[in-house]
Amino acid sequence: MVLHPFRLINPGLEVEYLDVREISLTALSAALYAVLLILLAQISFGPIQLRIADCIIPLAALFGWPWIWGVTLGCFIGNLIGGMMAFGFLNPIDIILGSIANLIAAYTIFRLKDHRLIGCILGSIIIGVIVGGSLWLFVPAPEIGLAYLPVWAAMIISITGSSLIAIAIIGYALLLTMSRLGISEIAKSRK
User: Fold this and answer.
1) Where are the alpha helices (DSSP H) in 49-171?
2) Bridge partners, 8 (sequence order)
3) Which partner for 124 in 71, 116, 163, 183 could form a disulfide, CB atoms 3.0-4.6 Å apart?
4) How does residue 89 score in pLDDT terms, banded at 50, 70 and 90?
5) Spatial separation of the C-alpha atoms in residues 2 and 48, rounded to whole Å
6) CA–CA gap between residue 40 and residue 139 (Å, rounded)
7) Containing H/E element for 25?
8) Is residue 142 part of a domain?
9) Domain count, the chain
10) Within-domain flag for 117
11) Does residue 145 surpass a pLDDT of 80?
12) How far apart are the first and last CA of the chain?
């Protein structure tokens, strides 16, 4: 068995070729997410945030695994750089858990691609619970009239609400528009 520089050999499985389209989609989504997050750092971090970058997460329903990995990597890079800009220090909890939240949310939306709105709502809740459930440890509670709730619950509600706006409203509209325009056919992923 000869190893070729442009294919992966999986013992016991078929030969899988590296697809330039998939690599490009991953790089595009990672760069787009990170740039949006960094450019809009003022509104993308904190107890009350609106991550416009999250509106591209639902596109995982169109582009599959390359997009899922891209928004995960983009979140890692964006939280690393944007977090420094917003907080003045590195926050490993936000960097790691935010990336995991994006991975799970994008995968959920991908798996529910036949029920896109439900997938977007569930993705928003996933991000709200994971990020909001950890963000309260290092960011003051939001002042949104939820003083009677524990800090962690107020943070989960705040992050879930902003995720619903970014993912289930803006992202869902973007997903529908791209679906209708047939853009996914141009860059269709194998998976």
Assistant:
1) 60-63, 65-87, 92-111, 116-135, 151-163
2) 16
3) 163
4) confident
5) 55
6) 18
7) helix 20-39
8) yes
9) 1
10) yes
11) no
12) 26
The fraction of the chain above a pLDDT of 70, given in percent, is 83
Cβ–Cβ < 8 Å for 149, 135: no
pLDDT digits (tens, 9 = 90+) for 131-144: 999 988 877 776 76
Q: Would you say residue 5 lies in a domain?
A: no
**Which long-range CB contacts under 8 A does 80-89 form with residues at least 24 apart?**
81/34, 81/38, 82/37, 82/38, 82/41, 82/44, 82/45, 83/45, 85/38, 85/41, 86/41, 86/42, 86/44, 86/45, 86/46, 87/45, 87/138
Q: Are 52 and 40 in contact (CB under 8 A)?
A: yes
Q: Which domain holds residue 80?
A: 26-186
For residue 131, give the nearest of 93, 98, 105 by alpha carbon.
Answer: 98
Distance of CA 25 to the CA centre of its chain: 14
* Residue 66 reports pLDDT greater than 70: yes
**What CATH number is attached to the domain comprising 78?**
1.10.1760
The residue whose two tokens read 């939306």 is 109
Give the residue carrying structure tokens 């329903």.
Answer: 61
Residues 2-43: pLDDT tens digits?
444 445 555 555 656 668 888 999 999 999 999 999 999 989
Instruction: Flag whether 35 is in a domain.
Output: yes
Give the pair of three-digit tokens for residue 21: 């389209």
DSSP SS3 for 17? strand
